[in-house]
Amino acid sequence: MPANFKAELVGCFGQPVAENPTGAMQEAAFEALGLNWRYLTVEVKPGDLGNAMLGVRAFGMRGVNLTIPHKVAVIRHLDETAPDAAIIGAVNTVRREGDKLIGENTDGKGFLCGVRDAGLDPKGKRAVVLGAGGAARAIVTELALAGAADVLVVNRFAERGATMAAEVASSTNAPIRFQAWQGYYPVSADADILVNATSIGLYPNSDAMPPVDLNAAHPRMLVCDAVFNPPETRLIATARQQGLPVVDGLAMLVYQGAIAFELWTHEQAPEQVMKRALRRALGLVI
Q: CB neighbours of 48 closer than 8 A, spacing ≥ 6?
């Protein structure tokens, strides 16, 4: 059989994108499975996104990730959008199916993988989600689709939070409520999942913590943080100190990347390989 020197191409489009560690994780997965695939991290200006997506088609790329500021704008350049991504209103992963480019959102799915890996099935559970941005919307949508009994969105900006909660509730027919965030939010004893989907605690403001009071939380409430750098945020550290189970943002990032890997390659993702590569890329102890 003759040698094949043609690599399959995937990548990430964003601006800024230089500090995005996804490529290290995906390249390690390709190597572990012996796949001749390459992950290109490409700075794409907003005005150039259309041309960049034409390049995806022209180069026969198998897919791309989208990060800030392209997650919404990319939708108009796609042939189809997956139902959950349409509800979220944003795409972070594009996969090729024949000649079609199909938009997916793996952020919320990655969160659910982390929750289930921690031993909690969100069906029938009560969740509190802090924030109303893109990450929060993806997480709220996936919780709703997974059958959560109640999802409470807590956000400082009332109009934004109430609008997001109402839109997702309308699209999913799920029980989603909104509460304005004023001062410290006391987590109630009936909450099963608490999620920080804000950027509070993100490097370099690693000492920051969402103003929440965990004292009334029941001992099995799962505390999740979407912030992955550092993975041991103050919220996660505080929850551990109180004996609560946790899912950190690094786990969520690995899971969403693993889902993208499987969408592109149709191979099972080597999640532990990806996690080690991500920790190495972020300068964390392996």
A: none
Residue 169's nearest CA partner among 193, 188, 145, 196 is 145
Which amino acids are annotated catalytic? Answer: 71
DSSP H or E stretch at residue 101 = strand 100-104
**208-253 pLDDT, tens digit each:** 999 999 999 999 999 999 998 888 999 999 999 999 999 999 999 9
Are 38 and 9 within 8 A, CB to CB?
yes
Per-residue pLDDT tens for 237-249?
999 999 999 999 9
The model carries a pTM of 0.91
Indicate the CATH number of 8-106+251-281 among 3.90.550.10, 3.10.20.30, 3.40.50.10860, 2.60.40.2470: 3.40.50.10860
CA distance readout (Å), 279 to 20, 25, 40, 211, 275: 13, 9, 19, 28, 6
Contact status, residue 180 vs residue 158, Cβ threshold 8 Å: yes
| Cβ(199)–Cβ(173) below 8 Å | no
Q: Which tokens go with 207?
A: 């000492």
